[in-house]
Protein backbone atom coordinates (compact mmCIF):
# COMPACT_ATOMS: atom_id res chain seq x y z
CA UNK A 1 0.00 0.00 0.00
CA UNK A 2 2.85 2.39 0.74
CA UNK A 3 4.17 1.90 -2.80
CA UNK A 4 0.73 2.75 -4.16
CA UNK A 5 0.62 6.01 -2.20
CA UNK A 6 4.02 7.05 -3.60
CA UNK A 7 2.84 6.22 -7.13
CA UNK A 8 -0.30 8.30 -6.67
CA UNK A 9 1.70 11.22 -5.37
CA UNK A 10 4.04 11.06 -8.35
CA UNK A 11 1.10 10.97 -10.74
CA UNK A 12 -0.40 13.99 -9.04
CA UNK A 13 2.86 15.92 -9.34
CA UNK A 14 3.00 15.33 -13.10
CA UNK A 15 -0.69 16.05 -13.57
CA UNK A 16 -0.65 19.38 -11.78
CA UNK A 17 2.66 20.82 -12.97
CA UNK A 18 1.31 21.81 -16.35
CA UNK A 19 -1.56 23.74 -14.79
CA UNK A 20 0.30 25.26 -11.85
CA UNK A 21 0.15 28.79 -13.24
CA UNK A 22 -3.59 29.00 -12.60
CA UNK A 23 -5.35 27.44 -9.62
CA UNK A 24 -9.12 27.24 -9.99
CA UNK A 25 -11.16 27.12 -6.80
CA UNK A 26 -14.60 27.70 -5.35
CA UNK A 27 -15.26 29.02 -1.86
CA UNK A 28 -18.33 29.47 0.32
CA UNK A 29 -19.45 29.53 3.96
CA UNK A 30 -21.47 26.98 5.90
CA UNK A 31 -24.25 28.29 8.12
CA UNK A 32 -22.06 27.80 11.21
CA UNK A 33 -19.38 30.14 9.83
CA UNK A 34 -16.88 27.54 8.61
CA UNK A 35 -15.27 28.68 5.37
CA UNK A 36 -14.91 26.04 2.63
CA UNK A 37 -12.52 26.10 -0.33
CA UNK A 38 -12.71 23.49 -3.10
CA UNK A 39 -10.01 22.95 -5.72
CA UNK A 40 -10.98 20.19 -8.15
CA UNK A 41 -8.32 18.51 -10.28
CA UNK A 42 -9.14 15.05 -11.57
CA UNK A 43 -5.79 14.41 -13.24
CA UNK A 44 -4.74 11.91 -10.55
CA UNK A 45 -6.80 9.83 -8.07
CA UNK A 46 -5.61 11.63 -4.93
CA UNK A 47 -7.36 14.11 -2.63
CA UNK A 48 -6.21 16.24 0.30
CA UNK A 49 -8.51 17.33 3.12
CA UNK A 50 -7.14 20.10 5.31
CA UNK A 51 -8.51 22.22 8.15
CA UNK A 52 -6.71 25.34 9.28
CA UNK A 53 -7.63 26.94 12.60
CA UNK A 54 -6.91 30.60 13.22
CA UNK A 55 -4.96 30.06 16.40
CA UNK A 56 -1.23 29.97 17.00
CA UNK A 57 1.26 30.69 19.72
CA UNK A 58 0.66 34.45 19.56
CA UNK A 59 -2.87 33.84 20.89
CA UNK A 60 -1.72 32.18 24.11
CA UNK A 61 -2.02 33.83 27.49
CA UNK A 62 0.99 34.73 29.58
CA UNK A 63 1.80 31.80 31.83
CA UNK A 64 -0.14 29.42 29.58
CA UNK A 65 2.15 29.18 26.57
CA UNK A 66 2.69 26.12 24.39
CA UNK A 67 -0.94 25.10 24.04
CA UNK A 68 -1.30 25.89 20.33
CA UNK A 69 1.54 23.56 19.41
CA UNK A 70 0.45 21.07 22.06
CA UNK A 71 -2.91 20.63 20.33
CA UNK A 72 -1.13 19.81 17.09
CA UNK A 73 -0.16 16.59 18.91
CA UNK A 74 -3.14 16.14 21.19
CA UNK A 75 -5.70 16.04 18.39
CA UNK A 76 -4.12 12.92 16.92
CA UNK A 77 -4.74 11.03 20.18
CA UNK A 78 -8.20 9.87 19.18
CA UNK A 79 -11.86 10.80 19.46
CA UNK A 80 -15.01 9.32 20.89
CA UNK A 81 -15.26 7.24 17.71
CA UNK A 82 -11.56 6.71 16.94
CA UNK A 83 -9.68 4.75 19.57
CA UNK A 84 -6.50 5.96 21.23
CA UNK A 85 -3.54 5.43 18.95
CA UNK A 86 -5.75 4.41 16.03
CA UNK A 87 -5.66 7.63 14.00
CA UNK A 88 -2.51 6.89 11.98
CA UNK A 89 -3.40 3.23 11.68
CA UNK A 90 -6.73 4.10 10.04
CA UNK A 91 -4.97 6.44 7.63
CA UNK A 92 -2.33 3.89 6.66
CA UNK A 93 -4.84 1.05 6.29
CA UNK A 94 -6.73 3.17 3.77
CA UNK A 95 -3.73 4.27 1.73
CA UNK A 96 -3.46 7.68 3.32
CA UNK A 97 -1.02 9.91 5.13
CA UNK A 98 -1.50 12.94 7.35
CA UNK A 99 0.21 15.46 9.54
CA UNK A 100 -0.13 18.86 11.20
CA UNK A 101 1.94 21.96 11.82
CA UNK A 102 1.75 25.08 13.95
CA UNK A 103 3.21 28.53 13.83
CA UNK A 104 2.59 31.82 15.62
CA UNK A 105 -0.63 32.50 13.65
CA UNK A 106 -2.39 29.23 12.80
CA UNK A 107 -2.59 25.46 13.26
CA UNK A 108 -3.10 23.25 10.21
CA UNK A 109 -4.18 19.60 10.00
CA UNK A 110 -4.29 17.68 6.73
CA UNK A 111 -4.63 14.21 5.27
CA UNK A 112 -4.13 12.85 1.77
CA UNK A 113 -6.00 9.77 0.59
CA UNK A 114 -6.72 7.94 -2.63
CA UNK A 115 -9.79 9.81 -3.84
CA UNK A 116 -12.17 6.91 -3.12
CA UNK A 117 -11.51 7.62 0.58
CA UNK A 118 -12.48 11.29 0.53
CA UNK A 119 -15.45 10.60 2.80
CA UNK A 120 -13.14 9.01 5.37
CA UNK A 121 -10.91 12.09 5.40
CA UNK A 122 -13.87 14.42 5.90
CA UNK A 123 -15.28 12.26 8.68
CA UNK A 124 -11.93 12.13 10.50
CA UNK A 125 -11.52 15.91 10.41
CA UNK A 126 -15.08 16.41 11.63
CA UNK A 127 -14.32 14.00 14.48
CA UNK A 128 -11.28 16.06 15.41
CA UNK A 129 -13.51 19.12 15.77
CA UNK A 130 -16.61 17.50 17.25
CA UNK A 131 -15.48 14.61 19.47
CA UNK A 132 -11.84 15.00 20.58
CA UNK A 133 -10.49 13.18 23.63
CA UNK A 134 -9.09 15.79 25.98
CA UNK A 135 -8.52 13.95 29.24
CA UNK A 136 -5.63 13.68 31.69
CA UNK A 137 -4.23 10.54 30.10
CA UNK A 138 -4.05 12.21 26.68
CA UNK A 139 -2.51 15.36 28.15
CA UNK A 140 0.15 13.46 30.12
CA UNK A 141 1.08 11.30 27.13
CA UNK A 142 1.40 14.19 24.68
CA UNK A 143 3.28 16.33 27.19
CA UNK A 144 6.09 13.79 27.05
CA UNK A 145 5.90 13.73 23.25
CA UNK A 146 6.23 17.53 23.08
CA UNK A 147 9.19 17.49 25.48
CA UNK A 148 10.96 14.85 23.40
CA UNK A 149 10.31 16.83 20.22
CA UNK A 150 11.76 19.94 21.83
CA UNK A 151 14.83 18.03 22.95
CA UNK A 152 15.49 16.37 19.60
CA UNK A 153 14.43 19.01 17.08
CA UNK A 154 15.14 22.25 18.92
CA UNK A 155 17.38 21.95 21.97
CA UNK A 156 19.83 19.65 20.18
CA UNK A 157 19.67 21.28 16.74
CA UNK A 158 22.73 23.33 15.76
CA UNK A 159 21.63 26.98 15.34
CA UNK A 160 18.19 25.80 16.46
CA UNK A 161 17.26 29.08 18.12
CA UNK A 162 17.65 30.83 14.78
CA UNK A 163 15.81 28.15 12.82
CA UNK A 164 12.87 27.90 15.23
CA UNK A 165 12.62 31.57 16.14
CA UNK A 166 13.68 31.39 19.77
CA UNK A 167 15.78 34.52 19.20
CA UNK A 168 12.68 36.57 18.41
CA UNK A 169 12.53 37.68 22.03
CA UNK A 170 15.33 40.08 21.10
CA UNK A 171 13.28 41.53 18.22
CA UNK A 172 9.87 41.94 19.85
CA UNK A 173 9.56 43.79 23.13
CA UNK A 174 5.76 43.67 23.41
CA UNK A 175 4.28 41.36 20.78
CA UNK A 176 3.79 37.65 21.44
CA UNK A 177 5.87 36.83 18.38
CA UNK A 178 8.73 37.26 20.81
CA UNK A 179 7.80 34.01 22.56
CA UNK A 180 9.07 30.62 21.40
CA UNK A 181 6.57 29.08 19.01
CA UNK A 182 6.58 25.85 21.01
CA UNK A 183 6.04 27.79 24.25
CA UNK A 184 7.63 27.20 27.61
CA UNK A 185 7.67 23.64 28.94
CA UNK A 186 7.21 24.85 32.52
CA UNK A 187 3.88 26.40 31.46
CA UNK A 188 2.70 23.09 29.99
CA UNK A 189 3.80 21.21 33.11
CA UNK A 190 1.87 23.64 35.32
CA UNK A 191 -1.31 23.69 33.22
CA UNK A 192 -4.41 21.96 34.57
CA UNK A 193 -6.69 19.73 32.54
CA UNK A 194 -9.37 22.41 32.74
CA UNK A 195 -6.99 24.96 31.21
CA UNK A 196 -6.23 22.63 28.29
CA UNK A 197 -9.94 22.08 27.75
CA UNK A 198 -10.62 25.82 27.95
CA UNK A 199 -8.06 26.54 25.24
CA UNK A 200 -9.83 24.13 22.92
CA UNK A 201 -13.22 25.65 23.62
CA UNK A 202 -11.84 29.14 23.07
CA UNK A 203 -10.34 28.55 19.62
CA UNK A 204 -11.46 25.27 18.07
CA UNK A 205 -14.81 26.03 16.45
CA UNK A 206 -16.10 26.00 12.87
CA UNK A 207 -16.32 29.79 12.71
CA UNK A 208 -12.57 29.99 13.40
CA UNK A 209 -11.57 27.50 10.71
CA UNK A 210 -11.26 26.99 6.97
CA UNK A 211 -11.82 23.59 5.38
CA UNK A 212 -10.08 22.93 2.08
CA UNK A 213 -10.50 19.96 -0.26
CA UNK A 214 -8.03 19.70 -3.15
CA UNK A 215 -7.59 17.05 -5.79
CA UNK A 216 -9.76 14.39 -7.38
CA UNK A 217 -13.42 14.68 -6.35
CA UNK A 218 -16.85 15.54 -7.68
CA UNK A 219 -18.18 18.85 -6.39
CA UNK A 220 -21.86 18.10 -5.91
CA UNK A 221 -21.38 14.96 -3.83
CA UNK A 222 -18.46 16.53 -1.93
CA UNK A 223 -20.54 19.57 -0.96
CA UNK A 224 -23.20 17.24 0.40
CA UNK A 225 -20.61 15.32 2.46
CA UNK A 226 -19.19 18.58 3.83
CA UNK A 227 -22.66 19.74 4.79
CA UNK A 228 -23.46 16.39 6.44
CA UNK A 229 -20.23 16.20 8.45
CA UNK A 230 -19.54 19.84 9.35
CA UNK A 231 -22.61 22.06 9.21
CA UNK A 232 -24.22 20.57 12.31
CA UNK A 233 -21.16 21.45 14.43
CA UNK A 234 -22.30 24.49 16.43
CA UNK A 235 -20.57 27.85 16.17
CA UNK A 236 -19.41 29.56 19.33
CA UNK A 237 -18.55 33.12 20.25
CA UNK A 238 -14.99 33.84 19.18
CA UNK A 239 -12.80 35.64 21.70
CA UNK A 240 -11.53 39.08 20.77
CA UNK A 241 -7.84 39.02 19.92
CA UNK A 242 -5.41 41.39 21.58
CA UNK A 243 -4.19 44.08 19.20
CA UNK A 244 -0.58 44.55 20.28
CA UNK A 245 1.38 47.12 18.30
CA UNK A 246 5.12 46.57 18.39
CA UNK A 247 6.88 49.95 18.41
CA UNK A 248 9.41 50.71 15.71
CA UNK A 249 13.01 50.37 16.76
CA UNK A 250 14.98 53.60 16.47
CA UNK A 251 18.39 52.46 17.71
CA UNK A 252 20.49 49.44 16.85
CA UNK A 253 20.50 46.79 19.57
CA UNK A 254 23.30 44.26 20.05
CA UNK A 255 22.88 41.08 22.08
CA UNK A 256 24.50 37.70 22.63
CA UNK A 257 22.77 34.32 22.37
CA UNK A 258 24.41 31.01 23.30
CA UNK A 259 24.03 27.52 21.82
CA UNK A 260 25.73 24.44 23.27
CA UNK A 261 25.24 22.53 20.00
CA UNK A 262 27.61 24.61 17.85
CA UNK A 263 31.37 24.97 17.54
CA UNK A 264 31.35 27.93 15.16
CA UNK A 265 29.63 31.22 15.99
CA UNK A 266 27.25 33.06 13.67
CA UNK A 267 26.22 36.65 13.25
CA UNK A 268 22.58 37.54 12.67
CA UNK A 269 21.13 40.86 11.56
CA UNK A 270 17.45 40.62 12.56
CA UNK A 271 14.72 43.05 11.57
CA UNK A 272 11.02 43.47 12.32
CA UNK A 273 9.31 43.88 8.95
CA UNK A 274 5.74 44.31 7.61
CA UNK A 275 2.87 41.87 7.74
CA UNK A 276 2.69 39.18 5.06
CA UNK A 277 -0.38 41.04 3.78
CA UNK A 278 1.72 43.99 2.67
CA UNK A 279 3.49 44.34 -0.66
CA UNK A 280 6.74 45.31 1.04
CA UNK A 281 6.99 41.81 2.50
CA UNK A 282 7.18 40.43 -1.05
CA UNK A 283 9.85 42.96 -1.92
CA UNK A 284 11.88 41.72 1.06
CA UNK A 285 11.51 38.16 -0.25
CA UNK A 286 13.05 39.40 -3.50
CA UNK A 287 15.86 41.09 -1.58
CA UNK A 288 16.52 37.85 0.30
CA UNK A 289 16.86 36.00 -3.00
CA UNK A 290 19.30 38.60 -4.33
CA UNK A 291 21.46 38.41 -1.21
CA UNK A 292 21.77 34.72 -0.50
CA UNK A 293 19.64 32.37 -2.63
CA UNK A 294 22.10 30.16 -4.47
CA UNK A 295 25.80 30.22 -5.21
CA UNK A 296 25.49 33.16 -7.58
CA UNK A 297 23.83 35.35 -4.92
CA UNK A 298 25.71 38.43 -3.74
CA UNK A 299 26.63 37.38 -0.22
CA UNK A 300 27.53 33.82 -1.17
CA UNK A 301 29.71 34.87 -4.07
CA UNK A 302 31.46 37.57 -2.05
CA UNK A 303 31.94 35.93 1.37
CA UNK A 304 32.08 32.23 0.53
CA UNK A 305 33.56 32.05 -2.97
CA UNK A 306 35.68 35.16 -3.47
CA UNK A 307 36.92 36.32 -0.06
CA UNK A 308 36.49 32.97 1.73
CA UNK A 309 35.49 34.73 4.93
CA UNK A 310 32.32 32.71 5.56
CA UNK A 311 31.54 29.04 5.71
CA UNK A 312 27.88 29.83 5.00
CA UNK A 313 25.63 32.85 4.47
CA UNK A 314 21.86 33.09 4.65
CA UNK A 315 18.98 35.51 4.61
CA UNK A 316 15.33 34.64 4.97
CA UNK A 317 12.01 36.11 5.92
CA UNK A 318 9.43 34.55 8.21
CA UNK A 319 6.25 36.12 6.91
CA UNK A 320 3.58 36.36 9.61
CA UNK A 321 0.14 37.85 9.94
CA UNK A 322 0.81 40.97 12.02
CA UNK A 323 4.56 41.53 11.69
CA UNK A 324 7.25 39.59 9.88
CA UNK A 325 10.89 38.89 10.64
CA UNK A 326 13.77 39.27 8.22
CA UNK A 327 17.20 37.78 9.00
CA UNK A 328 20.58 38.15 7.35
CA UNK A 329 23.39 36.02 8.71
CA UNK A 330 26.72 34.31 8.21
CA UNK A 331 29.01 31.74 9.83
CA UNK A 332 32.69 32.83 9.81
CA UNK A 333 35.48 30.82 8.26
CA UNK A 334 38.93 30.67 9.82
CA UNK A 335 39.95 33.72 11.82
CA UNK A 336 37.29 36.01 10.35
CA UNK A 337 35.66 38.03 13.13
CA UNK A 338 31.94 38.59 13.47
CA UNK A 339 32.50 42.33 13.15
CA UNK A 340 34.30 41.77 9.87
CA UNK A 341 31.31 39.80 8.59
CA UNK A 342 28.97 42.60 9.67
CA UNK A 343 31.10 45.10 7.73
CA UNK A 344 31.00 42.94 4.60
CA UNK A 345 27.24 42.34 4.85
CA UNK A 346 26.61 46.03 5.43
CA UNK A 347 28.45 46.85 2.21
CA UNK A 348 26.05 44.63 0.23
CA UNK A 349 23.02 46.04 2.05
CA UNK A 350 24.19 49.58 1.30
CA UNK A 351 24.52 48.72 -2.39
CA UNK A 352 20.89 47.64 -2.41
CA UNK A 353 19.94 50.85 -0.61
CA UNK A 354 21.77 53.17 -3.00
CA UNK A 355 22.07 51.40 -6.37
CA UNK A 356 19.55 49.85 -8.73
CA UNK A 357 20.01 46.14 -9.41
CA UNK A 358 20.65 45.07 -13.00
CA UNK A 359 18.03 43.84 -15.43
CA UNK A 360 19.77 40.49 -15.41
CA UNK A 361 19.58 40.15 -11.63
CA UNK A 362 15.93 41.16 -11.63
CA UNK A 363 15.05 38.57 -14.27
CA UNK A 364 17.01 35.89 -12.42
CA UNK A 365 14.97 36.58 -9.28
CA UNK A 366 11.71 36.37 -11.22
CA UNK A 367 12.73 33.03 -12.70
CA UNK A 368 13.50 31.63 -9.26
CA UNK A 369 10.14 32.70 -7.89
CA UNK A 370 8.36 31.13 -10.84
CA UNK A 371 10.14 27.85 -10.20
CA UNK A 372 9.23 28.04 -6.50
CA UNK A 373 5.61 28.79 -7.35
CA UNK A 374 5.34 25.81 -9.69
CA UNK A 375 6.97 23.51 -7.12
CA UNK A 376 4.77 24.63 -4.21
CA UNK A 377 1.59 24.22 -6.25
CA UNK A 378 2.46 20.92 -7.87
CA UNK A 379 0.68 18.74 -5.33
CA UNK A 380 -2.77 18.64 -3.78
CA UNK A 381 -1.17 19.13 -0.38
CA UNK A 382 0.72 22.22 -1.52
CA UNK A 383 -2.32 23.82 -3.14
CA UNK A 384 -4.54 23.06 -0.14
CA UNK A 385 -2.06 24.70 2.23
CA UNK A 386 -1.66 27.79 0.00
CA UNK A 387 -5.40 28.28 -0.41
CA UNK A 388 -6.09 28.00 3.32
CA UNK A 389 -3.18 30.25 4.29
CA UNK A 390 -4.07 32.96 1.78
CA UNK A 391 -7.69 33.02 2.91
CA UNK A 392 -6.94 33.04 6.62
CA UNK A 393 -3.79 35.12 6.98
CA UNK A 394 -3.65 37.26 3.85
CA UNK A 395 -7.39 37.80 3.55
CA UNK A 396 -7.53 36.88 -0.15
CA UNK A 397 -7.75 33.26 -1.29
CA UNK A 398 -6.97 34.30 -4.86
CA UNK A 399 -3.55 35.53 -3.76
CA UNK A 400 -2.41 32.10 -4.93
CA UNK A 401 -2.96 33.32 -8.49
CA UNK A 402 -1.62 36.84 -7.91
CA UNK A 403 1.69 35.85 -6.35
CA UNK A 404 3.74 35.82 -9.54
CA UNK A 405 2.10 38.98 -10.86
CA UNK A 406 3.11 40.77 -7.67
CA UNK A 407 6.69 39.51 -7.89
CA UNK A 408 6.96 40.39 -11.58
CA UNK A 409 5.63 43.90 -10.93
CA UNK A 410 8.26 44.73 -8.31
CA UNK A 411 10.60 47.37 -9.66
CA UNK A 412 14.26 48.09 -9.11
CA UNK A 413 13.26 51.36 -7.45
CA UNK A 414 11.02 49.52 -4.99
CA UNK A 415 13.83 47.15 -4.07
CA UNK A 416 16.11 50.08 -3.33
CA UNK A 417 13.43 51.92 -1.31
CA UNK A 418 12.42 48.90 0.77
CA UNK A 419 16.05 48.00 1.51
CA UNK A 420 16.67 51.56 2.62
CA UNK A 421 13.59 51.63 4.85
CA UNK A 422 13.57 48.25 6.55
CA UNK A 423 17.25 47.30 6.55
CA UNK A 424 18.38 50.54 8.15
CA UNK A 425 20.92 50.00 10.91
CA UNK A 426 18.84 51.79 13.54
CA UNK A 427 15.97 49.32 13.01
CA UNK A 428 17.90 46.11 13.51
CA UNK A 429 19.03 43.77 16.24
CA UNK A 430 22.55 42.39 15.89
CA UNK A 431 22.71 38.94 17.47
CA UNK A 432 26.07 37.35 18.21
CA UNK A 433 25.21 33.65 18.20
CA UNK A 434 27.96 31.97 20.19
CA UNK A 435 29.01 28.47 21.28
CA UNK A 436 28.15 27.65 24.87
CA UNK A 437 30.33 25.32 26.85
CA UNK A 438 28.45 22.21 27.96
UniProtKB/TrEMBL annotation:
Keyword Lyase found: no
Superkingdom to which the source organism belongs: Bacteria
Coiled coil: 335-362
Domain Peptidase M16 N-terminal: from-to ranges: 36-182
Keywords for this protein: Coiled coil, Hydrolase, Metalloprotease, Protease, Signal, Zinc
Cited PANTHER family: NARDILYSIN (PTHR43690), PROTEIN YHJJ (PTHR43690:SF17)
Protein name (record): Pitrilysin family protein
Lineage: Bacteria, Pseudomonadati, Bacteroidota, Flavobacteriia, Flavobacteriales
